[in-house]
From TrEMBL:
Gene Ontology cellular component annotations, sorted alphabetically: membrane
Pfam families in UniProt: EamA (PF00892)
Domain of life assignment: Bacteria
Organism per entry: Vreelandella azerica
Listed name of the protein: DMT family transporter
């Protein structure tokens, strides 16, 4: 028996989603290093991620490249639109309000996903998932406590759009069991790039990109984001939408550590406590569910 086959579908989903969150964790750090206006970042982020997603689909599917998109159907188009909305919400939310507000509101994505899944998919979540959502909300709040504030209602609204679109994206994926929606992230990238291009006055408002920023753009948008989000987008094939959202919160913790290590922006002690709560909750939940699965297997045998 191979190591891959010995893993349950849930364990595969956990590893896939957590791995994707770790891959995209330098996102905030690299955006700081790129240091471009939001319209420029959105345009290049959209174009380069679209190319990166398309390359991944081509490598995975080979001659079935076109069919991978066709299988997604109308639901796939909805997934692409929702993913692009979450991108706009995240970037514009950071422009109009404090970063702490954005992260705190985004931490509500698992709760929104749980509600949407209950209403539209009739999925019931175990008590341990609701407890984990509550603890992760607490931990994330502590992480961003120093940066949080009233902010702008417009920025908070954009952050709420990002959280809702992200949760709806994962929930919609669950509506087509067994269908991999990750190829449709190519379309999402193109939507982001097109809207950013129009918003910039059809390119008139774009600025020149410094050479070092080009390097960071390629690393982030052509490599890290396509790889990470392809794994995350496949998460709903194996896990409830709320669990996928929960695992994405690990990006907040690891991303904060990246900024600390590279830019020496030391988080407050309370933020370290919050990060420990988030990671500890996710690990404890994973171990608990592993034990439950092992007991169920032993009963079947």
């Amino acid at each position: 028996m191979t190591a891959h086959s010995s893993l349950s579908r849930r364990q595969q989903g956990l590893l896939m989603t957590a791995g994707g969150a770790l891959i995209i964790s330098p996102d905030a750090l690299l955006i700081k290093l790129i240091n471009l206006p939001d319209s420029d970042i959105l345009l290049w982020r959209g174009l380069l991620t679209a190319l990166g997603f398309a390359l991944i689909v081509a490598l995975r599917q080979g001659r079935g490249f076109v069919n991978a998109y066709y299988r997604c159907g109308g639901v796939g188009v909805g997934v692409a639109v929702l993913f692009s909305l979450s991108t706009f919400g995240f970037v514009l939310g950071n422009q109009y309000t404090k970063g702490g507000n954005v992260l705190m509101i985004l931490a509500g994505a698992p709760l929104i996903a749980a509600a949407l899944s209950r209403v539209f998919l009739h999925e019931r979540l175990p008590l341990r998932t609701w407890v984990a959502i509550g603890l992760c909300l607490l931990g994330t709040s502590l992480i961003v406590l120093d940066d949080a504030g009233a902010g702008s209602w417009k920025g908070n609204a954009f952050a709420l759009l990002a959280a809702t679109a992200l949760a709806a994206n994962f929930t919609l994926c669950r509506a087509r069991p067994g269908v991999d929606m990750s190829p449709m992230l190519t379309l999402a990238g193109l939507i982001v790039a097109l809207v950013a291009f129009v918003a910039s006055g059809f390119g008139a408002g774009l600025s020149a990109v410094p050479a070092m920023s080009v390097v960071w753009l390629v690393v982030l948008c052509l490599i890290l984001l396509p790889l990470g989000f392809t794994l995350i987008q496949r998460g709903p094939l194996y896990l409830p939408a709320a669990d996928v959202g929960l695992l994405m919160l690990s990006e907040v913790v690891v991303g904060t550590i990246w900024v600390w290590l590279i830019l020496n922006e030391r988080p407050a002690p309370v933020a370290l406590v919050g990060g420990a709560i988030v990671i500890g909750t996710l690990v404890a939940k994973g171990l608990m569910e592993r034990r439950i699965e092992m007991r169920q297997r032993s009963r079947v045998q």
